[in-house]
Amino acid sequence: MLNHVWMWLIAIGLIVAVARDVNDEVRNSYRNGIPLTVQFVVKNNASSARGAYEGSISSPAESMNQFYGKTVSQSDISQPASITTTPNGDQRIAIGTAGDNAPTVWKEMAKALGKEKVEGRVREITFNADHSIATLSIDLEKVSYAKLRSVTRAALEYADTAITICLGLIGVMALWLGVMKVAEEAGLLKVLTKLLTPVTKQLFPDVPPDHPAVGAMIMNIAANMLGLNNAATPLGIKAMEELAKLSPKAGVATNAMCTFLVINTAGLTLIPATAIAIRAAQGAADPGIIIGTSIFGAGCATIAGLIAVKVMQRLPKYKKALEVGDDE
Q1: C-alpha to C-alpha distance for 166 and 172, rounded to whole angstroms
Q2: CB 276 within 8 A of CB 290
Q3: DSSP type of residue 46
Q4: Is the CB of residue 42 less than 8 Å from the CB of residue 36?
């Protein structure tokens, strides 16, 4: 089911991207092939003999918005730029897109082309008397299907990020899975079960203390408390399978199953190992700083969830649902 959901989300994303790109192509939102007139303020004209200039592009916001037919900037434009001359005599311009006053359309164009700057060809250049300011007529690089390019590029980038995160998790997961296996083989599970029997009796009064579900639940909760979500999943499935055998009515969740689900969903965690590993893989300065807030947040969620499930399971409506032979 989840695979189908993801498939449809991806399909919808691609359809929306293509539809918006077609709309941009029809309206020529990026003004492909239409020259843009701007002012170029020369920073240093010492290299003008070689046809190379460093400076900045300036243009009133009103003129820029009028050119693109929409609001692309709230303030006047002033972006660093450089002009170079190619061997065949053509002049090229590269304009920076960083900063708050950079037109949003330029940022979109640069992102779609996978660059940090927008580039183009200088059609005409006219300097003032001292070569400090020039009026430029430029053709910016053609941009088409920008939204589809962005979606494709984002998919590849996040796929690379996912691989990086997974590789970073291998060491942490291997360590804690090994610890859990050693604890199971050493008989610590039985000891832990005995120690937690008073708690499990209160939380799951309908489950016999020696039932196989108890051991699976304890291991699952222990894994979750250590932040080993992946290791806890198979134990949680096993616990639910064993608890389902105690249900007097097939297909109906028992009080114990609901309580166990609440505990899992709340995710009470003492050592958020997975989250710490992800933060470490992403270069966080202090990956373990989230421990305190994780314990507090998960603790509040667990308490609230347990109160809710214990109150609701006492309601006549839910008691009746578990009665054998009742089809309501």
Answers
A1: 10
A2: yes
A3: G
A4: no
| CB 110 within 8 Å of CB 116 | yes
Tell me the whole-structure pTM to 2 decimals.
0.53
Tens digit of each residue's pLDDT (9 = 90 or more) over 267-287 = 777 777 777 777 887 788 888
The domain limits of the chain are 1-30, 32-143, 153-321
Q: pLDDT digits over 234-243, tens only?
A: 778 888 888 8
Q: Which residue in the block uniquely carries the two structure tokens 């997974």? A: 166
Q: Is 69 helix (H, G, I), strand (E, B) or coil?
A: coil
Task: Output 180 or 98, whichever has higher pLDDT.
Answer: 98
For 260-285, letters b (16+ CB in 10 Å) and e give bbbbbebbbbebbbbbbbbbbbeeee
Spatial distance between the Cα atoms of 92 and 138, rounded to a whole number of angstroms: 9
Task: Give per-residue pLDDT as tens, 23-37.
Answer: 988 989 899 989 999
